[in-house]
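Researcher: Here's a chain I'd like modeled. Treat it as a single chain, no partners, no ligands.
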Amino acid sequence: MAQQVASAKRQQDLQVQYSNYKETLQAIAQKIGDVEQEAEEHKLVLETLTPLPESRKCFRMINDVLVERTVGDVLPALRTNADGLKKVLEDLVKQYRTKQDDMEKWKKKNNIQVVQQ
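Model: Modeled as a single isolated chain. Structure tokens:
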């Protein structure tokens, strides 16, 4: 009887750990999607503004405030932001792969087999 209780407790603990791994992976995947979307928006704006004269007026959203600038003022900041987003995206993908590898090692260590429904 005590062995069954211990076995059930261990199984429950393993299920909780598995759920935590899955939730973490889903959260990272969501962040990756958000950053990819943001990077794509930056790319489109850069493609639109690059051929324009630097003295041309444009508008930029900064902290929910629309400010008037020139293309020459905005392009360097946009490039910097786009490069930063690429770096963040690379880091998130690396983090996702690491967490996925950790989960696979954990599954092998605990002899876990997932049955898809």
